[in-house]
Amino acid sequence: MSALLIHGARVLRSDLKTCDPADVLVDAGYIRAIEPPGRITSGNAEIIEAADRLLVPGLVNGHTHAHGSLGKGAVADRVPLEVFLSASGAINGSRTLDDKKLSATLTAVELVRKGCTAAYDLFVEYPVPSREGLDAVAEAYGAVGMRAVIAPMMADRTLYEALPGLAKSLPDRLQEQARQIKAAPHEASVAAVREILANWRYDRDTLRPALGPTIPLHCSDEFLVACARLADEYDVSLQTHLAESKAQAVLGYKRYGRSLVAHLQALDVLGPRLSAAHGIWLDGDDILRLAAAGTGVVHNPMSNLRLGSGIAPVRALMDAGVNLAIGTDASNTSDGQNMFEALRLAAYLSRVGDADPARWLSAEEAFRAATEGSAGVLGFDRVGRLEPAYRADIVFLDLGHINYVPLRNPLRQMVFGENGAAIDSVMIDGRFVLRDRRMLTVDEVHLRQQAEEAVARLDMENANAARAADKFRDLVGHFCLAHARAPFHIHRRLPDVS
Ligand SMILES: [Zn+2]
C-alpha cells in the first residue's frame, strides 16, 4: 500500500488543545509526520483531500461483548443486572458459529460507524469457550478491519450458585430447575483457553487474545487464580466485571467476608494485567488497592444507567492514580456501540453528586480516557493519539455538519456535542474502513439480511429458554432488590496522599 498524504484537515493533537490545519503523512500503518500545510513533500504519496475535516484519534472501547449485537432489543425495559443475567441463556443460546461471527461483525460495524477503532471484547460461549468460536470473532473483527482484544468470558458457577442465598430463596420446584442449569467445571474452561492461547494465529498488533473470568462471584477462587496464572504464562491481559451492582458488592461481603477487590487482592489476581469493567461499588480502600496494583477501571456509563447499576467514582479513581478507560458494554445492555455517547456521559455523570466543578470530568479528561486510557487497558502500543510514530487510527469528522456550525471550540463541541452523526470516514492502521460514510469492508445490505434471518430463527429456537427464564425473572429481581436496599455504606474518602 502506498503512502497517503492527508491534506488540509484540522488535526487534534495530543495536548487536546491544538487543532490547527495540518498535513498528515501515513505510511505502512503509522503516522509518519504531521506538519503545517504544504511542508511535507508528497513524493509518491496518494493525496487525500480533507478540507473541512477534523481529524481525531479513533476512540478505543475498553469493554464490550461481541455476542450482544444479535441480542439488540431483547432485553426488557427496567431490568437490573442480575435479571438480565438470568435471561442470558435465552438471549445468547442456540448460536451457530456463523451467528457468533455475524454478531461480532454487527458489533464491529457499529463501532466503526460511530468512531471506534479498537475494542476489548468479552465474548461468551456455552458451556466452554472454543477455538472455533474465538476464531469466528477474530475473523469478524479482522474482516471489518478493527483492532480487538478478544477474551473468552467464563464462569464455573451459574447465577444461582454465584449469589449466596439466591437458590434457597426460590420455591422448591424452581430450586430443582436452577440445579439443572450447569456451568462447566473450571478445569474444562482452563484447558480450552490454554489451547486457544497456545494456537493464536493472528497478528497481535491487531487481534490479541485475553481472558475474561466474568464476575468474581461467578468464578471459584481456583478458577480466578488459574486465569491469572495463565495470563502470566501467555503474557496476555484479563478483564472481569467488578463491583458492577450493589447486590454484587453486598453478596461479595457475604461470601468472602471482605470486599470483592480485597478478595481479588488476597488471591493475588489484582495487577496490571487485570482491568475491571464498571467498578461502581468501590470504597476508598478498594480504590487504593486498584491503584497500588496498577489495575485499570473501565467506566461504562450507558450500561450502568440502563441497568440502574449506579455511578462509578471516576474522580476518586483518577485521584488515586487508577488508569480510567471508557467502554460501551454490550449492544443489548447499552443498546448500541456509541463511544461518543459513552464519553459524554462519563463527563456529565461525574457532575452528579459533586457540587465542586473542579472535580467534574473535563472534556479533555473524558476524551483522554476514551482514547489513551482505554488503549492502556487494551495494551496496543502507540494507539490513542495523533502524533508521528503512532498508529494511523484516525476518525474524520465533517466540520460542515450542523454539530460543528458555528465552529468555536472543536474539542469541546466534539466531546459534548458529537453523537457519531458527523463521522465521514474512519481509517484504521492506515487503511480506510469507512470512507465518505460507506463501509468499504462489509456489505451492510447483506449483513442486515443475515441478521434478520438469524434473529427470527434464534428467537424460535430459544423460545422455551425464554419462557423458563420468565419464571425466574421476578424472583431473581426481588432477591437482588432486597440486597440493593440493604444498608451498605461506601466510604470513598481517600487518605491524603500528598
Ligand atoms: Zn460487560
How would you summarize what this structure contains?
The chain has 498 residues and is α/β, with parallel strands linked by helices.
What report would you give on this structure?
With 498 residues, the chain is α/β, with parallel strands linked by helices. The chain has 18 helices and 18 strands. Strand 7 (116-124), helix 4 (131-144) and strand 8 form a beta-alpha-beta unit. The N and C termini lie far apart (51 Å). The relative contact order is 0.17. Zinc ion binds at residues 63, 65, 241, 277, 329-330.
Topology of helices and strands:
Elements: E1 4-11, E2 21-27, E3 30-35, E4 46-49, E5 53-57, E6 59-64, H1 81-86, H2 88-92, H3 97-113, E7 116-124, H4 131-144, E8 147-154, H5 159-162, H6 172-180, H7 186-198, E9 207-209, E10 212-213, H8 221-234, E11 238-242, H9 246-256, H10 260-266, E12 274-278, H11 284-293, E13 296-299, H12 301-306, H13 314-320, E14 324-326, H14 339-349, H15 363-378, E15 394-398, H16 410-417, E16 423-428, E17 431-435, E18 438-439, H17 444-461, H18 463-484
Parallel strand pairs: 1-4, 1-5, 6-7, 7-8, 8-9, 8-10, 11-12, 12-13, 13-14
Antiparallel strand pairs: 1-2, 2-3, 5-15, 15-16, 16-17, 17-18
Helix pairs in contact: 3-4, 3-17, 7-8, 9-18, 10-11, 14-15, 14-16, 15-16
The structure holds zinc ion (ZN).
